[in-house]
Amino acid sequence: MLRGVGLRKVFKTGLFGGKRIVAVDGVSIEIEEGETVALVGESGSGKSTLGRILLMLIRPDEGKVFFDGIDLTKLRGKELKRVRIKMQLIPQNPEEALDPRWRIYDSIAEPLRIHKLVDKSEEEDRILELVKAVGLKEEHLTRYPWQLSGGELQRAVIARALALNPRFIVCDEPTSMLDLSTQASIVRLLMKFQKMFGISYLFITHDLELAKVVADRILIMRSGKIVARRVESPS
């Protein structure tokens, strides 16, 4: 379903861009329909950059990204937008995805409004369906992000990601900011939706033990490269 071939990304830093940081260095990766691939590595190994390249939030300097055989690196504007509707991101910090000035209802509704997927009469029913599915209550919709706990915020972000019925989601350290019990509930939620809808996940984490629980396959990343690959049997 999703394939990255020979991906490379170099960032330039310093006053005149004199220092070059190779974030992703010749990576090839493939993720099948309904599969969870865990990407494990230390901070700064290039995991998040690779995830954003696969979503085309960052364009690679070299290499190609294919989604259902379509070369996304050749697409721009509306053409890319039509494909990316099926690809979503759950960030490490849920605050990144939620505007602090907006109530939770509007944050979840935003992608539906941008892509004009429902009319006004259908919007509220769709939002209520989503918050119920992720374990939130209707009363949470009238609150602002700062009025929710970390676990509630991440559930709201998951609801927002699911709004467009995606086929592929990059989960970028989605539990690292949560306590252990909340981590477990969020992982169970993500696995439930995968079984229900056949979603494919790239699950980015620094926790190898967590990766063993959630993943069909594990890729180890270090210094911008995939240095090891292993197959797991998720529990």
Structural features, described:
This protein is of the alpha/beta class. The chain folds into two domains: 2-86 and 166-231, 3-Layer(aba) Sandwich (Rossmann fold); 102-165. It has seven helices and ten strands. The strands form two sheets. Strands 6-7-8-3-9-10 form a six-stranded mixed β-sheet, sandwiched between helices. The chain has a four-stranded antiparallel β-sheet with strand order 2-1-4-5, with helices on one face.
CATH topology of the largest domain: Rossmann fold
Alpha-carbon Rg, integer = 18 Å
Order of helices and strands: EEEHEEHEHHHEHEHEE
Strand order of the largest sheet: 6-7-8-3-9-10
**CATH class value of the largest domain:** Alpha Beta
Number of domains: 2
What general form does the structure show?
A: globular
Query: Major sheet: size, sense and barrel closure?
Result: 6 strands, mixed
Class of secondary structure makeup? alpha/beta
Number of helices: 7
pLDDT under 50 segments (min length 5)?
none
Binned, the helix content reads 25-40%
Strands, count? 10
- Which homologous superfamily in CATH is the superfamily of the largest domain? P-loop containing nucleotide triphosphate hydrolases
Report the sheet-strand fraction: 25-35%
* The CATH architecture of the largest domain: 3-Layer(aba) Sandwich
